[in-house]
Design a protein that fits this description.
The protein is of the alpha/beta class. The chain is built from nine helices and seven strands. Helix 1 runs parallel beside helix 2, helix 1 packs across helix 9 and helix 4 (105-130) runs parallel beside helix 6 (158-177). The structure holds NADP nicotinamide-adenine-dinucleotide phosphate. NADP nicotinamide-adenine-dinucleotide phosphate (NAP) is lined by residues 11-12, 14-18, 35-39, 42, 63-65, 90-93, 114, 118, 144, 146, 190, 192-193, 195-197, 200.
Length: 251
């Protein structure tokens, strides 16, 4: 499944699922732009690891929830790559476990700004560069949704689940909007994956607590999410667009 040298931007690529995508993409011949928000050390270490393995990558900071940052991010990518062929929207956040009646406006706004508007802004900038309508040569976008979109995450984080429901709807609409412009748009819905996101959301024990509810009785690894993402980016998925793929061990 090797591709010719093509250029891929991964938002939230410094850690977790995005980092796994970056590693596998680089091995398969993609040039990789690794976006991060705050943890420059993790992103730099990942770039070093990719380069040591003979791949090409660079790290670039930018908050996907800020339009100025997103515009600057894409300008940096333009400068380094010239052309863009793929975007993986992996940047995403959760917040501490809460019921809706405990959530304040600031929390709701941040959740939607990063997970929904961030995904839409980055996709918008990618479309301007990849769509044949804008003189581009086509490409592929993969959005990170979550099984939470179908479960709703009651008493845990309905705000997060709602944001991922929006990502699903956006994926379907954008796929159809761009179907004749050389861009395929798909989403992956991970289940419970072993990354820092659970601790970041104040639940370091979440995997241990929840894995018994997964039909496979275990968490997934970031690699197990990266593999289907790499397939969706590849030519082998050339007739797949608007698909939302559950990768949750049966959950
Ligand atoms: P993670 O380990 O917490 O990593 C998140 C990455 O996103 C980090 O690189 C972080 O940057 C970056 N990020 C966060 N906010 C950002 C912002 N505003 N702008 C730019 N980058 C930002 O998370 P993960 O588990 O890999 O999750 C990746 C995606 O998969 C998310 O969309 C998440 O909702 C989804 N997902 C995860 C799971 C799971 O169980 N892990 C399940 C379902 C869906 P820094 O490194 O600079 O902090």
């Amino acid at each position: 499944m090797t591709v010719d040298k093509q250029n891929l931007l991964i938002t939230g690529g410094g850690r977790g699922i995005g980092a796994a995508v970056a590693r596998h993409a680089a091995r398969r011949g993609w040039r990789v732009a690794v976006n991060y928000a705050r943890d420059g050390q993790a992103a730099d270490a990942l770039v070093g690891e990719i380069e040591a393995g003979g791949g090409e990558a660079f790290a670039v900071r930018g908050d996907v929830g800020s339009e100025d940052d997103v515009l600057a991010l894409f300008e940096t990518v333009d400068g380094r790559f010239g052309r863009l062929h793929g975007l993986v929207n992996s940047a995403g956040i959760v917040a501490p476990r809460a019921r809706l009646d405990e959530m304040d406006f600031a929390r709701l706004e941040r959740m939607m700004r990063v997970n929904v508007i961030g995904t839409m802004l980055c996709a918008r900038e990618a479309v301007k560069r990849m769509s044949t309508r804008h003189g581009g040569s086509g490409g592929a976008i993969v959005n990170l949704s979550s099984v939470a979109a179908s479960l709703g995450s009651p008493s845990e984080y309905v705000d997060y689940a709602t944001s991922k429901g929006a990502v699903d709807t956006f994926t379907i609409g954008l796929a159809r909007e761009l179907a004749e412009e050389g861009i395929r748009v798909n989403a992956v819905r991970p289940g419970i994956i072993a990354t820092d996101i659970h601790a970041s959301g104040g639940q370091p024990d979440r995997i241990e607590r929840m894995k018994g509810f997964v039909p496979m009785k275990r968490e997934g690894s970031p690699d197990e999410i990266a593999w289907p993402i790499l397939w969706l980016l590849s030519r082998e998925a050339s007739y797949t667009t608007g698909a939302i793929l559950d990768v949750g061990g049966g959950r």
